[in-house]
Amino acid sequence: MFMKRKVTLILAMMLLVLTASAKKGPKYVFYFIGDGMGTNQVMGIQYYLQDIEGKYGYKPLCFTQFPYTGLVVTYSANSDVTDSSAAGTALASGQKTDNNVLGLLPDRETPVVTIAEMAHKKGIRVAIGTSCSIDHATPGSFYGHTRNRNMYHQIGNQLSDSGFEFFGGAEFRQPAARNDDDQDNYVKAEKAGYTVVRGYDEYKQKAASTDKIILFDKDSKSDHALAYSIDQKEGDLKLAQVTEAAIDFMMKEPKKGFFMMMEGGRIDNACHANDPGAYIREMLDFDEAIKIAYDFYLKHKKETLIVITADHETGGLGLTAGDYKTNLKVLQYQKMSKDAFTAHLEKMGREIGDILTWEEVEKELKENFGFWDKIELTDKQTASLKSAYVETFGMGPGALEEGKYFEVSKMSDEAARVMTECAQISWAAGCHSGSYVPVFAIGAGAEQFTGQIDNKDIPMKIKKLAGY
């Protein structure tokens, strides 16, 4: 009888241990936010990948194969169409706020508490990364608290106040001190114990010798973002490298666990610009960063949660142009973003010191968009490009000296519009929309992220699962 009771007791204790183990939440949390990434942005890249292989259907990304999916509602406290700061605040804290407000309730006074701050308070290591500036709305939502999202200097100083171990992305937007009582963003970061490194190679050299680090690109960019993936050159910092560096830095103390937010911020920029080739490459870049996290998950399956979502959809992307087909494979021939093509033509003009001829512009369109060479254009499309050339370059004597010649964005805009037309897709606007965005999840507790979800509920689910 005694032995029977002893065996029963042992079995009961084992059951309790197994139950407690089963209920244990994730130790390592990855939170990916594709800024501007609606459901059509995701479906479009999958159609594209299949189309370039000459097949109908879709080729899945890494994250679209995750077992749990849902649809996310994104409205803000004062609009059905959110901006990134209101959406970022909801995704970071579980609190709705007004558009343009960052990390505060709609009263613009009461700070919210973000899951990154909750995690850090419990001794968990925190990493924040982005392909935009590190003080931009989405990353800033996880540590910043300002009445307006454009208060970049204040947000930059709040970054140092957070004490988070890792930051990565593009440089501060407004670093300089505003008055004698203020501090430069870089100076304050240094005083707070951060080591600022530029480029992935410098990160690898200095990461071991510091407790807190800020990883910027090797060269600062004028548009305060990492270079578009389509425009990147050797040595340019990539979101995948930011993610890899963040994991490396977080795992200096693996027992503490980590919370990590990584933003694919330039998806939004490309969609605002209605730039189809740039959007496609940004989606691929975002998936490459997620693959780094997925590789980590495969080694720590029981302890890791990966959640991918978006703050809102941008551009009203339509996977049709009025016919029952698309032609997305043509986007492989676009070699530059609109912004880069504008800068390229401006540079050519300055080097030549004269107005470019139509033949010179036509050659650049062939090389960088594939027009006439790899993509057959209609007479109407060719005429529209020539018309844009005349508007841009046909300014007559004196235009070069007056600086008018270098306003060449009309040429790039028309090239992107024709490319969109050739791909047989469409854009409804150059702003955000109120559409659903997706959520994908894998790992410990991932089954919580299904069905229709309000964006404010996502961080609360993560908080509960991870015990923040």
Question: Which labels suit this protein?
Answer:
468 residues, alpha/beta, Alkaline Phosphatase, subunit A, 2 domains, ten-stranded mixed β-sheet, two-stranded antiparallel sheet, 17 helices, 42% helix, 15% strand
List the helices and strands and how they pair.
Blueprint: H1 2-23, E1 28-34, H2 39-51, E2 68-73, H3 84-93, H4 115-121, E3 125-133, H5 137-140, H6 152-162, E4 166-170, H7 185-191, E5 194-198, H8 200-206, E6 212-216, H9 239-250, E7 258-264, H10 266-272, H11 276-299, E8 304-309, E9 313-314, E10 317-318, H12 338-352, H13 358-369, H14 379-393, H15 399-402, H16 409-423, E11 426-427, E12 432-433, E13 437-443, E14 451-454, H17 457-466
Parallel strand pairs: 1-7, 1-8, 2-14, 3-4, 3-7, 4-6, 5-6
Antiparallel strand pairs: 2-13, 8-13, 9-12, 10-11
Short structural description:
With 468 residues, the chain is an alpha/beta fold. The protein has 17 helices and 14 strands. The protein folds into 2 domains: 27-319 and 429-466, Alkaline Phosphatase, subunit A (3-Layer(aba) Sandwich), CATH 3.40.720.10; 328-423, no CATH class.
CATH homologous superfamily annotation of the largest domain? Alkaline Phosphatase, subunit A
CATH architecture term of the largest domain: 3-Layer(aba) Sandwich
- Please identify the top-level CATH class of the largest domain: Alpha Beta
Shape: globular
Under CATH, the topology of the largest domain can be stated as Alkaline Phosphatase, subunit A
Individual helix count: 17
What strand order characterises the main sheet?
A: 5-6-4-3-7-1-8-13-2-14
